[in-house]
Design a protein that fits this description.
The protein folds into three domains: about 70 residues, Clp1, DNA binding domain (Jelly Rolls); about 180 residues, P-loop containing nucleotide triphosphate hydrolases (Rossmann fold, 3-Layer(aba) Sandwich), CATH 3.40.50; about 150 residues, no CATH class. Helices cover about 20% and strands about 35% of the residues.
């Protein structure tokens, strides 16, 4: 691994030779032809390898290339069995013989190569003139759109990382792992599949790395049922056995795919940085929109979906000192939950419900700031994402920051809050609106 100033290397690779390039690095093809991420790159192709990625680079024919390594970048000759380029090429050659539209779902744990395999297959199909939709359902490390969403792209040109693609559809989920919002995740996935499954195009689905425990595996089963794939590709022996046993007697082809033995593992800080980068990309150039609470749909809200209470009604539910009454900005009852919005700095120690069955949800003014939301049109279709800037409970308006330029018919409340730098600051465990 290289450290320090940039290092320039000129390499000559015989036909069929594979090297592993880890970023940060750039590659310039001087002669011959390289295969990277399933795509062919003749001269004078130039590629940038992120510091978060590494690739097996194969010489399709004798090639010469110039590699510039940044701090931490490397070029290595892999040991036998470490790289899987040829195995993945064989896999794709069988796919290309499939005359009907393909529906491929890729399963595996974190850092197993799911994203790389997704790009590899997509590039191989594109190179043969096939129309391909790529769906990224990894809401924690979403590459096509932003975290907390499912992103859909339709690439027409070769690429080496899903982050190079532009989303044509975004489905808001609202959390960074399916285990925190299972219903929303399944609903979003079902909507995507129903919109694409009869398109006549190939469909590739990259999944998240939540595969530990019965709930995680049952979710993957459910996704398979909803998608009805032609192929399930699994990058784990254990998960392969489970899925294969689950699908006995079906017409679905379940394949154990070899995974790279050496991967560029990302730390927690790396993952946090990549999420921030994705948020920044999609939420750049936002505008502040005023929305009337009484004129928009609010999904996932308990406070604003509940029956509003005035002070005279409120005192029937909770012991409220007179001085506290002036500090209640908004109150509502939602099932057996009493929601109160208090002016910032107000003490809650004097609040006591009269009934033991009544739960108290106390929100301080401004707690909603930074909450990630999905933007809906008038027909409740996902059209964008935004951030709650503030709520004025006196004039009945919500202020949202979003880059969406069309009309807004409603909001879906998420479970993640961002700061001004689009960094995740918390996972929301209670209702804030």
């Amino acid at each position: 691994m290289h450290s320090g100033v940039n290092l320039i290397i000129t390499l000559s690779l015989d036909e069929g030779k594979v090297v592993r390039v880890s970023g940060p690095a750039s590659i310039e093809v001087l002669s011959g032809e390289l295969l990277i991420s399933g795509a062919s790159f003749p001269p004078p192709s130039k590629l940038i390898i992120s510091r978060f990625r590494s690739y097996g680079v194969k010489a399709v024919k004798r090639s010469e290339l110039k590699v510039i390594l940044g701090d931490g970048g490397s070029v290595e000759e892999p040991r036998e069995g470490e790289e899987v380029v040829d195995a993945w090429l064989d896999l794709c050659s069988r796919l290309l013989n499939y005359s009907k539209p393909l529906r491929v779902i890729i399963l595996g744990p974190t850092e197993s190569g799911k994203t790389s395999l997704t790009a590899f297959i997509a590039n191989q199909l594109i190179s043969k003139g096939r129309e391909v939709y790529v769906v990224d359902t990894d809401v924690g490390q979403e590459d096509i759109a932003i975290p907390c969403t499912i992103g859909v792209a339709r690439p027409t040109n070769k690429f080496i990382w899903l982050r190079e693609l532009q989303p044509i559809k975004i489905k808001f989920v609202g959390c960074t792992s399916p285990q925190y919002c299972l219903t929303q995740y399944v609903t979003a996935f079902q909507e995507v599949v129903s919109e694409l499954i009869n398109s006549g195009s190939d469909l590739i689905v990259n999944t998240d790395g939540w595969v530990t425990g019965p709930s995680a595996l049952e979710l993957k089963q459910l996704m398979i049922k909803l998608m009805r794939p032609t192929h399930v590709y699994v990058l784990s022996d254990e998960i392969y056995e489970y899925i294969r046993n689950s699908l006995r007697g079906s017409n679905i082809e379940v394949v154990l795919v070899p995974r790279p033995k050496v991967v560029r593992e990302r730390s927690r800080d790396d993952r946090r940085f990549l999420r921030q980068q994705a948020y920044s990309k999609l939420l750049s150039n936002v505008r502040r929109i005023k929305l009337a609470i009484n004129n928009i749909v609010m999904l996932g809200s308990c406070l604003l979906s509940g029956r509003r209470l005035d002070v005279n009604e409120l005192i029937n539910y909770v012991k409220l000192p007179q001085e506290a009454c002036n500090n209640v900005l908004y109150a509502s009852i939602y099932g057996n939950t009493l929601n109160l919005v208090l002016r910032r700095g107000t003490s809650v120690c004097d609040l006591s419900p009269y009934s033991d069955n009544l739960e108290l949800n106390v929100i301080n003014e401004g707690d909603e700031r930074g909450l990630l939301v999905g933007i809906l049109d008038g027909d409740l279709r996902d059209v964008g994402v935004g951030i709650i800037d503030s709520v004025n409970y006196v004039d009945g308006n919500i202020y949202v920051l979003t880059s969406w330029n069309g009309s807004i018919g409603g909001l879906i409340l998420g479970k993640v809050k961002l700061n001004e730098k689009y960094e995740e600051v918390s996972r929301v465990s209670k209702c804030l609106l």
